[in-house]
Amino acid sequence: MKLLKYMTLYDKILIISIIVVSISAIIFPIIYHANIINNRINAEIMIQSGKKIVKKIELESTYREKPIIVEIQGPAGISVIEAHKGRVRMKKAAENCPLKICEKTGWVSEAGPRIICVPNKVTVWIKTGENDIDGISR
Q1: E strands, 1-138, where?
Q2: Residue 111 has pLDDT above 70, yes or no
Q3: What pTM does this model have?
Q4: All residues at 6 or more sequence positions from 90 whose CB lies less than 8 Å from its CB, including other chains
Q5: Which residue has the higher pLDDT, 42 or 16?
Q6: Residue 138 pLDDT > 80, yes or no?
Q7: CB contact set of 99 (below 8 Å; sequence gap of 6+)
Q8: CB neighbours of 56 closer than 8 A, spacing ≥ 6?
Q9: Which residues 6+ apart lie within 8 Å of 44 measured at CB?
Q10: Three-class secondary structure of residue 8 per DSSP
Q11: pLDDT tier at 83 (50, 70, 90 boundaries)?
C-alpha cells in the first residue's frame, strides 16, 4: 500500500480507466456474438413469387443431412431452390431465364443479400428477427 502514497489522483484515474476499458473489451464481443446467434435461431428463409410469399422455411430446420428442395412455378418456368446448413441458393433457374443470374448468385447465408430471378418473378432471402435492414443502411 506504500505505492498508493506516491500516486497522484490522475494516476488512479488512469488505472481505473484502463481496467474499465479492458473489461469492456472482453464483455462487449461476448454480448454481440450471443445476439448474432439468437438472430440466426429466429431466422427464416423467405421465398416470394410475384407479390406473394409462397414459402417460409425456418433456418434452423436446414441443418439436416439432406437439403430442403423447393420448386416454384413462375412465368418463365420452374425455379428450384435449395436450402442446406443455414444457407440458401437458386439451384436451377427457370428454363426460359436467359442469363440465369439468380443461379450464379450462389449461396446466401445471412440477412441482407437477395436472390432474384426477374424473368420468373421469384425472390429468395433470409429474414432475421430484427428489422430487415442490411449493414450498409444501419
Answers
A1: 44-49, 52-58, 68-74, 77-84, 87-92, 114-117, 122-127
A2: yes
A3: 0.67
A4: 79, 80, 81, 82, 102, 103, 105, 115, 117, 122, 124
A5: 16
A6: no
A7: none
A8: 44, 45, 46, 47
A9: 56, 57, 58, 59, 126, 127
A10: coil
A11: very high
Q: Does 138 fall in a domain?
A: no
Residue 117 pLDDT > 60: yes
Whether the Cβ atoms of residue 45 and residue 126 lie closer than 8 Å to each other: yes
- Looking at the fold, whether 90 and 25 belong to one and the same domain comes out as no
Dig out the grid coordinates for 58 from the structure.
Answer: 425456418
Number of domains in the chain: 2
Q: Which residues pair with 55 in a beta bridge?
A: 47
86, 107 Cβ separation under 8 angstroms: no
Tell whether 132 is covered by a domain.
no
3-state secondary structure (DSSP) of residue 120: coil
Q: What cell does 34 get?
A: 450471443
